[in-house]
Amino acid sequence: MKGVLWLAWRQQRAMIITGLVLLAAVAAWAAYLRSEMTTLIDDYGFVPCKGWNGGCEGLGSFLVLDASTGPIRTLGTLGLALPALIGVFWGAPLLGRELESGTLKLALTQGVSGHRWFAARFGLAALFAVFASGTVAALTAWWWAPVSNTLDGLYWYDAYIYNATGPASVACALFGLAAGTAVGLLVRRTLPAMAVAFAAIGTVGLLTRALRTGWIAPETRITPGMTPKTPVGSAWSTGEFGYLTSDGREHDINTPVCQTSGEDLRQCMAEHGFVARYHKVYPSSDFWTFQWIETALYLGLAAVLVALVLYVLRRPAATAGAATTAARTATATTRTAAGV
Q: 323: which strand partners?
């Protein structure tokens, strides 16, 4: 290892080593608690009763879920927060600190192109982001698998699982790193860049969650007449259900209200010309469809942000000038604080 890659390692090795130690601790903690969970599964005769279909649950199943859901949710929360943590504490200072201290100007005058210098720094950080997010995703999925989509436990669409497992979690970590890096380059001050990066990454995450149900159409489950409705099971209910007329028109459950049963339900449906009931859900198999769509989205955003950084770094004179300005501002702020 030599040249810019050696310099990138030298500057980021503390972060990498610290991250690896923390990952090892998390992995050991998850492995220990999962082993306890599997012991409870054997002791209580746990039955993987998927969804709330009924008829297969037992006291042992609820005891296992009660003991394991909280810790799995904790690990899932780490996976959910990891993109923001990477963006704020690694991405934002990656270039922002160089600009603030003025060392970027020195780096760009050592016969090394801005692109090559950036590729080494960002590439090393990206490798760790992929490794860290992939490790947390694998641990979460491995721990959750024996009790997945069961009774009152965690389901595939819960944020603790959805955002902490699958390829989208890795892509989101890369997006977080790219967002933090771009903000650091544009804001030029480390602490303000960290705040802006946190807000930007959080906003994109919230928007993605809000728009998720618009990616694909839900599955419409139809039950003719008064036939018992298909259990929701492991599916993600959209909350849209009601009645169908003979021409296929949908009528929401609340307009008109026929929330009764037995003969009352039959009469109500006959009075309004309803011939069937419908319920819209996303089956558990849609997990992968959602994941790949959001993976493409996050990777696309990351690519755009990296392209923006490369564009700015194409102008070494302007970049060096920005570094000088940022360094002077930081120095002036320090002197003011010191009362000089």
A: none
CA distance 204 to 83: 11
pLDDT in tens, 217-268: 999 999 998 887 788 889 999 989 889 998 889 988 877 777 677 888 888 8
In contact, 184 and 93? CB cutoff 8 Å: yes
Nearest Cα residue to 133 out of 316, 11, 299: 299
What's the gap between Cα 100 and its chain centre? 30
Which residues touch 1 (CB under 8 Å, ≥6 apart)?
A: 9
Q: Is 334 exposed, middle or buried (0-12, 13-18, 19+ CB in 10 A)?
A: exposed
- Name every residue whose Cβ is closer than 8 Å to that of residue 195 and which is 6 or more positions away in sequence: none
This prediction's pTM: 0.85
Q: Indicate the length of the chain as a whole number.
A: 340
Q: Is there a cis peptide before residue 256, judged by omega within 30 degrees of 0?
A: yes
- Structure-token match 């969804």, residue found: 51
- Tell me if 177 sits within 8 A of 127, measured CB to CB: no
How is 170-197 classified by DSSP, letter by letter? Answer: HHHHHHHHHHHHHHHHHH--HHHHHHHH
Return the structure tokens found at 336: 């003011």
Cα of 335 vs its chain's centroid, Å: 41
Establish how many alpha carbons lie within 13 A of residue 174's alpha carbon, considering only the half-sphere containing its beta carbon.
Answer: 24
CB 281 within 8 A of CB 232: yes
**Strands of 250-252's sheet in order across:** 219-224, 274-282, 236-245, 250-252
